[in-house]
């Protein structure tokens, strides 16, 4: 007889995104139908074919750092620090009601797709222009992909498992899902989990642009990211960090924490087919959604809303729409679907985490965030799109997809606090 | 270069690199003992001085850069040479 898995709950949320520097600001902007994508500032190379991105603007609060420490933080670390402070404060994990927590049993898992590339580019330039002696002694630690998780743990004294999942655009979702395993197995009491990405640099823009992955709608930034729309022409690069506090339900209950939602299930799979393109024939997307539902002990018909990965690329959105129909069958017609990337752009390794956060907010508020710029839904597939305007629907179960280069797939299933 | 101008430029580097106040930048202050620098801070400090004064400071000279005073003295010698 299968044992009943431990119940895992979400007790804290924090993010910095192109829509705002807090979870509250991001959520209110997204349900209001705002878009965080703008023209790149002038310091970016004028020769770039793509001139738009979803940048984090506004003041960040990375916490008490000395001046020289601050200089040694890659932007991806600063974004993660700001999101971590908000998430931990939201969960009150380390404050008054958390005074009895055992920090040896609180871990951190912060994924990233690319790592500290701002720092890498700066130091490569210093090397090329001035030679090896001009490379910073902090270049290596600043650039390492796991340093956001490391620095967050240092700032808050979180001494449990410290992990960094690097699976391209599924990094954030894998960090959350793999942490679900750690919590279910009892290896940690709580995990601060999610993703961070700060990769809006000339080199990265050029790379994605030359793959023909990016939208070139430079003259209409707010209309460039249009998942599922017939006129979509690629994704828009975004940056940000999103973190969730996951906790064993008994641990949360014992300290009187507010439960925002439950993390019910997680599934992972690989296409094992193409480096970059989705491969519908391999069924990777379908299999990860099915695995997540099995992990949650739910049937497809239990799901009310899918927060899609859909990045606004022609091939990716189509493949996901087809996979959704394969998994949900006739229930697809009653299944609300949206991709929040229309508003945020694609945060790569932080995307799955931000979308998990928005999924939790959807469960809490009874509002489903919309797909922006969905003016003319692609006629080659049919979904119940939440187009352009947030929809008031009391969802009880939400599934969030994340897919990445390398053929990686992850799906998370969240349930409302009373589910 | 006038000594005062040199000292001013060194002070600015130290304030920026070590995150200390200008008041702490006195000639007898030791980078490690008084200003809280570690070995990698010293590496960065030397790099910043190399850049500011467009010179190369060989590793074997780094032990002459113990205090602010000795650093200013060293830079004066190098720049006059």
- Give a quick account of the main beta sheet of chain B: strands, pairing sense, barrel closure: none
| Biggest beta sheet summary of chain A | 11 strands, mixed
Distance between the termini of chain B: 12 Å
The gross shape of chain A turns out to be: globular
Number of helical elements of chain B = 3
Percent helix among the residues of chain B? 40-55%
Helical/strand content category of chain B: mainly alpha
Helix coverage percent of chain A: 25-40%
| Strand adjacency order, main sheet of chain A | 5-4-6-7-1-8-15-14-9-10-12
Rounded radius of gyration of chain B (Å): 11 Å
Shape of chain B: globular
Low-pLDDT sequence parts of chain B? none
Between the first and last Cα atoms of chain A, what is the distance in angstroms? 23 Å
How many β-strand stretches of chain B? 0
Residue runs with pLDDT of under 50 for 5 or more positions of chain A: none
Mean pLDDT of chain A: 96
Give the largest interface. Answer: A-B, 10 and 11 residues
Question: What oligomeric state do the depicted chains represent?
Answer: heterodimer
Number of E strands of chain A: 15
Following the backbone from N to C, one meets helices and strands of chain A in this order, namely EHEEHHEHHHEHEHEHEHEHEHHEEEEE
**Overall pLDDT score of chain B:** 91
């Amino acid at each position: 007889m299968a044992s009943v898995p431990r119940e895992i709950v979400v007790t804290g949320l924090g993010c910095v995104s192109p829509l705002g520097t807090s979870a509250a600001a991001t959520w209110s902007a997204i349900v209001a139908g705002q878009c965080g994508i703008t023209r790149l500032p002038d310091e970016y190379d004028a020769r770039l074919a793509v001139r738009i991105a979803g940048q984090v603007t506004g003041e960040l609060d990375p916490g008490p750092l000395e001046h020289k420490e601050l200089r040694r933080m890659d932007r991806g670390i600063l974004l993660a620090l700001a999101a971590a402070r908000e998430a931990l404060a939201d969960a009150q994990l380390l404050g008054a009601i958390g005074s009895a927590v055992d920090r040896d049993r609180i871990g951190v898992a912060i994924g990233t797709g690319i790592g500290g590339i701002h720092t890498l580019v700066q130091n490569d330039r210093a090397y090329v222009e001035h030679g090896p002696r001009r490379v910073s002694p902090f270049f290596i630690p600043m650039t390492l992909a796991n340093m956001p998780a490391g620095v967050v743990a240092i700032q808050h004294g979180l001494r449990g498992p410290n992990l960094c999942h690097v699976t391209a655009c599924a990094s954030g979702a894998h960090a959350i899902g793999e942490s679900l395993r750690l919590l279910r197995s009892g290896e940690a009491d709580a995990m601060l989990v999610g993703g961070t990405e700060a990769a809006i640099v000339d080199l990265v823009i050029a790379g994605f642009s030359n793959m023909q992955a990016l939208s070139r709608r430079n003259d209409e930034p707010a209309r460039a990211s249009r998942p599922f729309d017939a006129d979509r022409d690629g994704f828009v690069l975004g940056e940000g960090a999103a973190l969730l506090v996951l906790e064993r339900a008994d641990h949360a209950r014992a300290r009187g924490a507010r439960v925002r939602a439950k993390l019910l299930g997680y599934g992972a799979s690989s296409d094992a087919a193409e480096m970059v393109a989705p491969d519908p024939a391999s069924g990777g997307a379908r299999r990860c959604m099915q695995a997540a539902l099995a992990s949650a002990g739910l049937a497809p018909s239990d799901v009310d809303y899918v927060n899609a990965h859909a990045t606004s690329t022609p091939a990716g959105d189509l493949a996901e729409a087809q996979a959704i129909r394969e998994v949900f069958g006739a229930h697809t017609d009653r299944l609300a679907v949206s991709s929040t990337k229309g508003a945020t752009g694609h945060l790569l390794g932080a995307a799955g985490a931000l979308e998990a956060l928005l999924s939790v907010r959807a469960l809490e508020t009874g509002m489903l965030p919309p797909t922006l710029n969905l003016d003319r839904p692609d006629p080659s597939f049919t979904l119940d799109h939440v187009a352009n305007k947030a929809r008031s629907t009391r969802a009880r179960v939400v599934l969030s997809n994340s897919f990445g280069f390398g053929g990686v797939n992850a799906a998370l299933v969240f349930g409302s606090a009373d589910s | 270069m006038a000594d005062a101008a040199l000292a001013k430029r060194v002070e600015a580097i130290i304030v920026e690199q070590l995150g200390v106040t200008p008041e702490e930048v006195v000639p007898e202050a030791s980078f490690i003992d008084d200003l809280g620098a570690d070995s990698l801070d010293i590496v960065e400090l030397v790099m910043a001085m190399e850049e500011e004064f467009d010179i190369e400071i060989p590793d074997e000279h780094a032990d002459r850069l113990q205090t602010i005073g000795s650093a200013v003295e060293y830079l004066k010698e190098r720049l006059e040479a």
